Amino acid sequence: MPGPDANTIWIEPNETGGYSAQFEVYFWTGNKANRLARVKAIGKRMMGGTWRCRRCGDDLSQDKRADTRFCSEGCRKKSVRKRREEREHWMVGAPSDYMGAAKG
Ligand SMILES: [Zn+2]
Fold it and tell me: What is the pTM of this model?
């Protein structure tokens, strides 16, 4: 049973600010509607300029899920780690700020 691959859809931004999309329908797919929905969702993100990795800014591959935010597992993990560091920093910093505000 073949799985979905990167070549099953193509989305190309065009000069008018829109995009054109094509997708291939295999005999085994019962999910044509799902794929069309994914093409539309990805196309919308491309037009909005958010079809990029949130960490490194690379364009995302079109074989990703439409709600993908990172180009790779590495970027995703690094981003999670950074968010955690920021949160810990905030938790360490917050009580003294609060105390200072309460005294003042
Ligand atoms: Zn990335």
Answer: 0.57
